[in-house]
Design a protein that fits this description.
mainly alpha, single chain, about 10% strand
């Protein structure tokens, strides 16, 4: 089953030179929430996932990969 890829999140943010703090501020979420996404401890849901995808100029589906796939 597909799972959220924190490595893809980091890759997309770095490509736009955005820090975790930048992402948190622009999405109006706590630094703790953003940090948990970047560490792969939590998955952004619903509107946050859509906002994250827009911010990082990716399709929401891009942040998910099949289990066992190389990061």
């Amino acid at each position: 089953t597909p799972h959220f890829s924190s490595s893809r999140l980091r890759e997309a943010a770095e490509a736009l030179e955005l820090t975790q703090q930048d992402v948190a501020f622009r999405l109006g979420i706590s630094m703790r929430a953003a940090s948990s996404w970047f560490r792969g401890e939590q998955v952004p849901g619903g509107k946050n996932l859509i906002a994250l995808a827009r911010l990082l100029e990716r399709d929401a589906e891009w942040f998910f990969e099949e289990s066992g796939a190389a990061a």
